[in-house]
Amino acid sequence: MRGYIQIGRKTILVFFFILLILLPSSMQSLADPLEDSEDKKSERKFHPFHQYIEIQYDPSILNQTLDIHKSINLPIKITYWTDMRDNLLWFMKTFGWMIRNKLLFGKGFPQQYINLSITDKPDWADVGILQPSIPADIPTVDTSKKITFPPSGVFSLISSIIISPLEEAPSKPYSIGVRVRCQDMGLLGEAVFEKKITFRPRFLPKIQIKPDETVKMVLPHEAVNFKITVTNYANKKIRIQPELKNLPDRWKPTINPSFMDINASINGSFYSGSFYFSVFAPYDFGWHDATQTFKINFTATSFPIDNNSITGGPYQITLTVNNYGFALPGFEYLGVIA
Fold first, then answer.
1. What fold, for 207-337?
2. What are the sequence ranges of the domains in the chain?
3. I need a labelling partner for 86 at 20 to 30 A (CA). Which of 43, 103, 224, 308 fits?
4. pLDDT (tens digit, 9 = 90+) per residue, 237-251?
């Protein structure tokens, strides 16, 4: 007597999916029994479906230069979806839902984590993400509707990037990367997406003005020269321009050159330039105790020189001449002007 075993269509489909999941990894394990790293395990898995991620943000927030030591909040919208159909193993949704989840996602209670990180982070700015790891439900494609790309069933969330330039930040455009990653899960392959975000720190006109001396002795009808060294501690190439205003004409004051362009620092090395201020003592200077002071203003303008340039200053120094060489209040001058 011959017996027959009836195997239902649903049962056959279940076994087919189990074999589909287990067979590739089993064969690979036999081929490479010693390779058990996480990367190798991920490569051995069978991933017929894909995960997709997209990042959007409002670029107008970064149209303006960023203030030094001031944080800016840049909201980013993250959209996450998959191409897995919702009707896979549909007959198991009611009674065998946990087994179905295990077959499709590798877990009885699947939940994905969207991990965010910053690439190309500069050492002259604090850059961070408010919530670097965000839990997300796994969306599937609604087959009852017309399938589009991206599909109607997507998972959206809002995160924020905080950017705060430090004092040594260069005033030029710089791009960081925002990388989003979802690990592989069951039949879903890993997804990695990166978007570049460009910003520019504000110009910080920081200079140092250092005369070789602040007080010099002079005799009647004698020329006196002061060497004034200006160092660029700003975060951009600048033009230094001296101003001689309200100085006594009979001393014939001059300063050369009329302006000077000084490059920004490179690898911590700061560039300098020198001006030479000259006066010519009148004949009647020196018959009695006499002094004369000269106030010189300097401005620092960012490059390129155009209508959008930013000018810092004026920064003022005081130089003194006397006819006996005695020291005056206002001894040696050395200052960092910001």
1. Immunoglobulin-like (2.60.40)
2. 42-199, 207-337
3. 43
4. 999 999 998 899 999
